[in-house]
Amino acid sequence: MIVPNWRRVIALSLSFWMQIAGLFVLIYPELKYRLTEQDSDPVLFWWLGILLLLAGIAGRLYEQSESTWREWVRIGGVVVILFLLAFLFTSTVRAAEAAPPITSATEQQTLDVAVPFILKKEGIRLVAYLDGGGVATICGGLTTASGIKVYIGMPPMTMEECLRHMRVKVAEYRRGLHRYFNATTRQTRLPATRDTAYTSLAFNVGIGTAGNSTAVRRLNAGQIAAGCEAITWFNKDGGRVIRGLFERRKEEKALCLMGT
After folding, report:
1. Average of pLDDT values for 185-205?
2. Phi-psi category of residue 13: left, alpha or beta, with phi > 0 → left and psi -120 to 50 → alpha
3. CATH number for position 206
């Protein structure tokens, strides 16, 4: 049931408006992305929303008088303080991310890290088998579509052959994904470990899906840590979080953050 003095609550309540403001700043980045496909600084809006919601909780303990203008002065003061705190915090984060640029890895340097990592995640089978979709598969998920003839009963692969074919295939995924990166990202934001994390994601979910993801958009915007975090969003299959995908995304994020 609505409280009898609801008009006064809307007019004066510090806690009411702080929580409304906190809810708004938490929803705003997602709403902006839906309308413009532009990402906002996740650190700024997350902390600002939390601070406003905390202020709303604290406001429940504060007695509000009938002097409207004084209440609004107090509310305005709290908002200014919260904005300043959020600004100082995000300035520190940006300063940390503004470290001298690194030099991106060469393709060979990335493959030296990516191929063993992806093989570990995909699993190594040197004898051809049928995958869940009934497709003949070998090595680390290679099929006839990978450019080699794979069929049940074919001679087993050696580990050297498996590694050689995987380097070719992983390199194709890396090059395909790199088309979605801007020049600055390709030149300065992709050490071998981060390049591996994004290449592994593309190998698992597809080049187009990875390339059009928030993880890539954030990296292109220089939001390295936020981009690494967005990699972990690909942990579901059929709407459910899958333990194997959860663990893989966690390891990819750890690789991605190396050197930040």
Report:
1. 96
2. beta
3. 1.10.530.40
